Amino acid sequence: MIKIIITILILINILFLYLLNKKKIKKFFYKSKIKSVDIEYLNKIFTNKIIDKNLSGPKDDVIVKNFCIPPNNNIVGMTSNYEAWIISSLSTISKKIFEFGTCSGKTTYLMSLNSPENSEIISLTLSPENLNEIKRNELDNKISFRNILNESIYNNFLFTGSKFEKKIKVIFQNSLNFDESIYHNQFDLIFIDGGHTYSVIKNDSEKSFKMLNNNGIILWHDYVPGKESAKNVVKYIHNISKDFEIFHIKDTSLCYYTKKNTL
Ligand SMILES: C[S@@+](CC[C@H](N)C(=O)[O-])C[C@H]1O[C@@H](n2cnc3c(N)ncnc32)[C@H](O)[C@@H]1O
Fold it and tell me: Quick check: 220 and 239 in contact, CB under 8 A?
């Protein structure tokens, strides 16, 4: 009897320790296969200004317009505040921007708030009416597929009706059927945050490589090794990192690729 009680207590302790250290344990088992870099490696605009010997902070270049969505607003599929600031800052130097996956339009709105006056933002997404076109491929993660259905719920966006809406063109289409050939070599900034299934992330990335201009940046969202719903994003990025130099940005779920390394 005592042996059984001790075994149960040990098992409860192991479970408790696992739950407490879930993130660290996952990090240990699911290692990133690409290099993680500090944000200033991505672009010089992120280099800190030294204010005092114990204080440094953002330069004027990266003081951006921002807004927050209170958690009780229940908006799905958003970037973190730090990631949103990175994308907003890059938008200040981007005239042509493309986004795969609009969702609530939070990031699209930030892009339009911070990009130059004459910039153009195209965001491609599924509307609830498009969902009957979506099929799960055998390589596609089930949770990522379910998330596509859960996140394709908007016909209007956070920027709808705002004065910045004129910069934005939303295309409601399955990206698998999107013909990118008229957009080759055009974009300064491409944000890949559409479907997170293998077939969609591969499709969106391959099209992005063709749409990027020589000085442009591709950003992928949700590179989180060990997270079930991000499994296909991680798998695809690891697969192509043999051919393309892709970096992970520390303390984010963002990865990036540039034709010209800005290091
Ligand atoms: C994670 S949300 C995007 C979040 C948004 N980028 C943001 O930062 O607020 C994913 C979006 O991708 C769209 N999506 C998923 N699969 C797609 C596909 N095959 N073609 C086009 N859009 C897709 C969904 O409709 C959803 O709006």
Answer: no
Q: How many CA atoms lie within 13 A of 5 on its CB side?
A: 2
pLDDT tens per residue, range 38-76: 999 999 999 999 999 999 999 999 999 999 999 899 898
Question: From the CA of 6, how far away is ligand 1's center (Å)?
Answer: 49
* Any ligand 1 atom below 6 A from CB of 175: yes
CB atoms within 10 A of CB 128: 12
Tens of pLDDT, residues 207-219:
999 999 999 999 9
How far is residue 164's CA from residue 85's CA, in Å, rounded to a whole number? Answer: 18
pTM: 0.91
Which residue has its alpha carbon closest to ligand 1 atom 11? 101
d(CA 108, CA 185): 21
- Give 102 Cα–ligand 1 centroid separation in angstroms: 5
Q: Where are the domains of the chain?
A: 1-30, 31-261
Q: Mean of the pLDDT values across residues 161-172?
A: 97
Q: Is the CB of 151 under 6 A from ligand 1?
A: yes
**What number does CATH give the domain 31-261?**
3.40.50.150
For residue range 127-147, what is the model confidence (pLDDT) as tens digits? 999 898 899 999 899 999 999
The pick from 82, 125, 223 for probing ligand 1's pocket by mutation, whose C-beta has the most ligand atoms within 8 angstroms, reads: 125
Residue closest by Cα to atom 16 of ligand 1: 195
